[in-house]
Amino acid sequence: MSHRVRLQLQVMMFVQFFIWGVSVGWIAAGILVGKVCAQASDAQVEASALPLRIAAGVSVLLGLLSFFLPAAPPRSRGKRVTVADVLNLDALKMMKDRSYAILVVSSLLISIPLAFYYNFTNLLLNETRLVSDPAFTMTFGQMSERGSCC
């Protein structure tokens, strides 16, 4: 298999993993906590330990699933490994490219307000009671992201 085909396959697999594993999984978790669990319980589910218990159960299932994955030894098995290899310091050479440096800096800067959004929006919506089910409502952001890019 050529290097180009192999790289294209890896990119396609990453995109599929990102769409199904991260985005759809996050949306499903928001719907589960915001609608399904909330309707099954009279208590405010988001303020309870139930979401953490669900996460613990899913983590155990995924841990068990990992035992059934195919063996994938590292490509550099048997080769000498340096600190620069482990820290991927060769990637810093890419910062010489102006376009890449702008991408890295802008990604870093946009992640600052995102950190506040991810940490405090649910808390704000629960405290102010602007919406009846904040976890479910917040999934619309992920749904619109999926609809706009993929």
Secondary structure: helix percent? over 70%
Task: Kindly report how far apart the N and C termini lie.
Answer: 27 Å
Structural class: mainly alpha
Q: Encode the helix/strand succession as letters.
A: HHHHH
Strand percentage: under 5%
How would you sum up the major sheet? none
Number of domains: 1
Architecture overview:
This protein has 150 residues and is mainly alpha-helical. It has one domain (3-69, 82-149). The chain is built from five helices and no strands. The protein has helices spanning 3-40, 50-66, 83-87, 98-128, 134-149. Helix 1 (3-40) runs antiparallel to helix 5. The longest helix is centred in the first third of the chain and has 38 residues, at 3-40. The model has no long low-confidence stretch (mean pLDDT 82).
Short description:
The protein is mostly helical. Helix content is 71%, strand content 0%.
Question: Which features would summarize this protein structure in a list?
Answer:
5 helices, single chain, 150 residues
